[in-house]
Specification:
nine-stranded mixed β-sheet, three-stranded mixed β-sheet, about 25% strand, about 260 residues, globular, alpha/beta, single chain, about 20% helix
């Protein structure tokens, strides 16, 4: 099935007068467990109303993460460390050249609708890719963002961005992984996001013939975030345990969604 999912509400703006979302990035490769701990603590503080919402952009060293639906037979070759993520979905890969975005928002204030949140993240990525003249699409039966590949054959398509989230007390955790220029061979150690169809593969901006720096990708992500999620502001002070730097440029709920 290749038609975009219909009847999804897109957009998740905050209520009038809400403070802007803090926007941060980390240089270098960030240890996964440290990032997970920092994200969990920040999301809990957001749920308590003690911290502003946050988008955190970073890269991890090469590793695999297992979502709540991961099956052992989908780990083909554990050539990199494997971490339990707590998010929805199956196995995915993170590594250098991939922009990971951890999105910590308060859905209790915005709209307590997990499907809407996931669809809006997908649209955000689709809009950002359009800045590079890449047509990203969503699918009825698979969460994430896909690119048609007629150059590879009829009905061929590749995934360029994975989406996997968790919601605790209506505060969101995890987010997306957008392939800018990672080593695509590293995905062969898993069945990425449980999709084993021969016609489906993995791609990146570089694989599509596009040269884009991580800073350029960040510019596109920031510009396309605001129309969907509201205003952002550079974070000037963040708990040091979160290992986050300021940007380089001028009802109780627990749920998980697939990647």
């Amino acid at each position: 099935m290749v038609n975009a999912r219909a009847n999804l509400t897109i957009g998740l703006l905050p209520p009038p007068g809400a403070p802007p979302v803090e926007w941060c990035f980390s240089d270098g490769l960030i240890d996964y467990q440290s990032a997970l701990a920092a994200m969990t603590a920040r999301a809990a503080a957001i749920a308590r109303g003690e911290a502003p919402e946050l988008v955190w952009l970073l890269e991890h060293p090469a590793l695999y993460t297992a979502g709540t639906s991961a099956r052992p037979d989908e780990l083909i070759d554990a050539r990199f460390p494997v971490h339990s993520a707590g998010r929805g979905g199956q196995f995915t890969y993170h590594g250098p050249g991939q922009r990971v975005g951890y999105v910590m928002l308060d859905l209790k204030r915005r709209a307590p609708d997990v499907r809407r949140f996931v669809a809006t993240i997908e649209q955000w990525l689709i809009d950002a890719l359009a800045r590079f003249n890449v047509r990203g699409e969503r699918r009825d039966d698979r969460i994430g963002v896909w690119v048609r590949r007629p150059d590879k054959g009829d009905d061929r398509e590749d995934k360029i961005a994975a989406v996997g989230i968790r919601v605790r007390q209506w505060a969101t955790l995890h987010g997306f992984a957008l392939n800018v220029d990672p080593d695509l061979s590293h995905f062969s150690g898993i069945v990425p996001c449980g999709v084993a169809e021969p016609r489906c593969g993995i791609t990146s901006l570089a694989d599509l013939g596009l040269t884009a720096s991580m800073a350029e990708v960040d510019v596109a992500l920031r510009a396309t975030f605001t129309p969907l999620f509201g205003a952002v502001a550079d974070a000037q002070t963040v708990d040091s345990t979160e290992k986050v730097s300021p940007p380089r440029r001028s009802a109780k709920s627990s749920a998980a969604a697939e990647s």
